[in-house]
Amino acid sequence: MKKILYTAILTLIVLTMGACNNTNNISKSKSDNTLSEAKLTDREKDILSTTTDQSFVFEYHMADSTYKEVSVWVEKYESGKRVEDKKIHVTAGLKNNGTIIFATSTPTSHQNESMFSVSINSKGDTTTGSNLETITKEGSEQSKSLKISEINTESVMSVWGSNEAENILISDKMVLASVGYSYGEGSMRTLSQDFYSDMDHHINEIKDFDVVYLLRSEFTK
Predict the structure, then answer these.
(1) b/e burial code for range 146-164 (CB count within 10 A of at least 16 → b)
(2) Percent of the chain beyond pLDDT 70?
(3) Beta bridge partners of 159
């Protein structure tokens, strides 16, 4: 029931934002197939902030018919190693321009859980997917099943980030956004922009995180 509710909320957000974005004056490359983080209006930011803890919105622009579909999914990493592939996986057909949303929200009575949701909207057609994730403390065998609610919540740190480059040329398996968790004392840094553009050569950046979730996309011909 919770997944149905969150999916319904996300769908409403996408449809509302889709209507707003039709009037946005967003700079796009007219001759290339590109993707950029959306420049949201104050109204759109307000809509997202009332229903999500954190969110990222991307817009893609297809200048030609090279690509037929777009897929979006979430990967989970622990201490730099991928442990789950495509926790959420949605695919949609391309219709020139569209929007991709990645959002999380925490149920009021379940602080150790987070709802991860992704959505693709193109010309009024919306495809959504969600997954209720229980965040656990990684490390020793004794602590692997320890939930956030069972440890000092002040020691749980999280950071968010996204690919902020404008008019990114479409390529294979792009990294769009990230959320990372670490437990215990210490400092955390957001992932560099180099990580999003070349993850393979900057994978060391996520090794110090206990858990990292990456939003990825792939445009196929």
Answers:
(1) bebeeeeeeebbbeebbbe
(2) 71
(3) 180
Please give the structure tokens belonging to residue 75: 């990967």
For CA atoms 146, 212, 83, 176, give the dihedral sign: positive
**Per-residue pLDDT tens digits for 170-187:** 988 899 999 988 876 656
Mean pLDDT of 41-58: 82
List all residues 6 or more positions away from 208 whose beta carbon is below 8 Å from its beta carbon.
80, 182
- Is-contact 36 162, C-beta < 8 A? no
